[in-house]
Structures are given as C-alpha cells and as structure tokens.
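Subject: two folds for Thursday's group meeting

Dear M.,

Sorry for the delay on this. The cluster queue was jammed most of the week, so I only got both jobs back this morning. I'm pasting them in the order they finished. Each block is the input sequence followed by the predicted structure tokens. Could you check whether the formatting survives your parser before we put anything on slides? The first protein is the one we discussed after the seminar.
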Amino acid sequence: MKQWYEELFENYGQQYDKECFTRGTSGECDFIEQEIGFNKKSRILDLGCGTGRHSIELARRGYISITGVDLSETQLARAREKTNENNLKIDFQRYDARELPFHNEFDLVIMLCEGAFPLMETDEMNYRILKNTSKALKNNGKFIFTTLNGLFPLFHSVKDFLTAASEAGNVNYENNTFDLMTLRDLNTTIVEDDFGNKKELHCNERYYVPSEITWLLKSLDFKIIDIFGAKLGAFSRNDRLTTEDFEMLVIATK
C-alpha cells in the first residue's frame, strides 16, 4: 500500500511546477551559493529533489557536480525532461531517503520545501533521513534544509493558514486536526494530477520545534546548528525564527 506522499507526487510533475511555493527557487539558490562561498566545484546532493528546480538552477549557475534524489519516478522524469531542455548535466537517481547509499561524498546536502523530511509516518523514519544525510556529507560538509515549524501551530490555526494557501494553488486542504502530543497535523488533501484526476489523500505531517531539531542534529555529529525563519525565495540569516514562521530554515555543519 502506497503512503500518501507517494500518491501525491505520482503524475504530479507538471502541476507541481505551477504551485505558488515553487516560485522562490532563484532567491533560495542565491542563499545556497553564499553559504558555500560560490565554490562551483562543490559536490551537491539535492535530497527529495522533486522536479529538480534547485538542482537545475544551480547547474545553470555553473555548479558541475549535482546529484538529485527522489522517491517519485514521475517527479524524476519531469526533472530529467527539464534538464535535457536546458542542455544541462545532473545525475538524477531514484532512492528512498531512508535508505541512501552515499558515504562521505558531498560538500553540501540541500533538502528544501519538505523534500522527504518531515513527511514520514514515524519519527524514527524521519530520523533515519537525517542520519543518512550525515553519512552522505564529508567532514565540514554543510546541510541546508527547511521543515515545518512546531512553534507556528501553538499560536495559530494550521487550518486557516492552509486554507489561505489553497486559494493560490492547485491543492485544497480539509479536515485539519493538529495533535499537540505528537506535533502532527492530520488533514485531507485534495489535489489534481497532470492528467486531471482528482486525488483525496489523508496526510500526516510532523512539525518540529527548534530544540528537537538541534538535539537530533547534535546526536548525528553536527557541530554548528543555526535555525532561522524560512521566507519563500528569500532565505536569510537575518530572519530570527518566530511563531509567525510556518517553516524554519536549518543550516548545520559537521
């Protein structure tokens, strides 16, 4: 039986690229470049790469060693199609982020827009993704990712936020229930795929508070962990994380 996130991303590449939350790619890549000192030789792993938007933008800017990994073959097909259209070279591979083969290979791992973490059905599975990321990085390697901010639902209605987001995109969210004991949001998501088929998915997403993320990463030998608010298309170390931020931006160095 497929999990909800597998069903969501099946035959969803064209529609995904039209979603409002994909519009910040260029500004987010500006930040990534700054964080790695514009080193074009950096080996980069884009984990949960989807249709490859960050990988493709970085390749356009001259980064020559990029590997994109995703669980969805149809998302990867869309990524390869766009890569070929732009005459770029990116190594896209299908892997489950819970079972990665990489060891001490990359200078940078990016995992943006909930690209794998924190969509898994158990906390242990989410932890395995972080563990595999740590293994994939070289010493002094950097990990940049975004995840759902657990401080937000303690002060705001997730339902109201997602309803507002639905008005600007292709996805509708219904029947939200936020569990304070597990920090998980349960909702019904209605989405239309690339063929016009409507899907009704029962989603389960884990929100994290900053202290949890810090502890998890420290347990995996990350030495420096910085957490900020994640602004779409405008990541910055100047944005202190607050209860107003739906997502947090995490930058960790081994």
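Second protein, same layout:
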Amino acid sequence: MALAEVYPLVTARVLARPFTYAVADDVERGAVVSVSLGGRRVRGVVVDVGVEAPPEVSISDAGPVVDRVPDALVELALWLADYYGSTPARALALVAPQQPARRGERRRPSSRDVLPGEPEPRELTPAQRSSVARIVAALDSGGGHALLHGPTGSGKTEVYLQA
C-alpha cells in the first residue's frame, strides 16, 4: 500500500492540513476516498501520493475510492484556497461535491401525470396537403430549406409532422 496526503472535506479551520493515509497502489491524485476522521467516515481528496510517513505516527487505511476529480481541478482548488485565504478542504469541496443518495427507484409517471396530445386531424386542409407535398418533394430531391408562414393555430406544426 502507498501513502497519500488526503484533505478531509470538512469545514473546520483547525483541520486545514492534509492527513496521511494508506491507500491502494492504484489510487492517484484527485481520487475521492472515504476516510475515518474523529470516529466518523468523511470524504477526502487525495492531493499527493507516495509521501513519507511522519515519524512515530500510526497510519490509518483510507476506504474505497468513491469518486474522482480531474487533476486540473485539484490544482485549481488548491490555488483558490491559497489565493483567497480559505482552507483547502473548502475549496476542494467545490470541485468534489457530495452526490445526493437516492432513496429508492424513481416512480414511473401515472396516466394522470401525462399531458395528453391533441388528436390527429381527420384530414388536412388543401393548403396543408399542398405544403406537405412540396416539403416531401424537396426532401426527396436532396433537401433544402422549408419555412411555413401563417398565423398561430393555422396547422403549421401538423404540416411539419406529416412531412
């Protein structure tokens, strides 16, 4: 296992430093891992891998990788924290937001939730039939542009649908 510097994503200013955790060998910078901190599990962002362990400190194992953040966003967040005088954890939380947990399957819409469409007209008007024929002929001959002009409610959308 490799050692990594991880910023726990907490807002407390007193924790404005990285902690060293043991991570799997395939974990890279930008991995969001689950870490144990003060008796609870929090998310943390790996900012450096392959670090040396501080002397006389017991190293905890980090949990699984739960998300990933691109390296460029990690770099940006650390710069933001330094430039604006914030904690790195607060800035990293901006680029690694918590994903809301689903509480179950999304319900399917019932028939009362669905808006009914208008029924198809029994027959098109002569002007609509002529327009459909001209649009279909244009499409069959290789395309082109078609613009229907008319007042609201005159059936332009139905012409496009029929064509």
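Two things I noticed about the second structure. The CA atoms of residues 132 and 160 lie 7 Å apart. The chain has a mean pLDDT of 87.

Cheers,
T.
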